[in-house]
């Protein structure tokens, strides 16, 4: 089981690295108005369109640092979820081990949320008052919508 876990972790991390580059590139293009009709001057992302070149570089650096910090956490969460599924589906499930794995996942998710909050605070610090209002509206709008697309969680 340890070998299987190690192989799955390696595959997840390697796969995640390939996913980061295209997403980052497409987001970067949209932030600079290269997204066609999806330009950032529309909708809740209006704050990005008002950034100076210097601010944009600072935001990009903050985002890069955030992604470097969170990518390993995401990989650990995925691995822990696989481990949890294996524990739950064992011939004789060990409730104590299951609870411990759930606690581990909760701790990792908490780490990820803290990193996201740090990122948002760091971005807010480089904005002027007008930009900050738009940014805050964007953050509040995202919070009220919750996760989009239904790709996370259970829907049963």
What does this protein look like?
Helices cover 76% and strands 0% of the residues. With 156 residues, it is mostly helical. The protein contains 5 helices and no strands. The protein has one domain (2-35, 48-145). It is elongated. Helix 3 packs antiparallel against helix 4. The longest helix has 36 residues, at 53-88.
Number of helices: 5
In whole angstroms, the N-to-C terminal distance is 29 Å
Beta-strand content = under 5%
| Secondary structure tally: strands | 0
The coarse silhouette is elongated
In angstroms, what is the radius of gyration? 19 Å
Helix vs. strand class: mainly alpha
Total count of domains: 1
Low-pLDDT stretches are 11-44, 152-156
Overall mean confidence score, pLDDT: 78
Order of helices and strands: HHHHH
Major β-sheet, in short?
none
**Helix fraction?**
over 70%
Q: Could you give a short description of this structure?
A:
The chain is an all-alpha fold and 156 residues long. It is built from 5 helices and no strands. It has one domain.
Tell me the layout of helices and strands.
Elements: H1 2-31, H2 46-49, H3 53-88, H4 95-125, H5 129-145
Helix pairs in contact: 1-3, 3-4
Features:
156 residues; mainly alpha; 5 helices; disordered C terminus
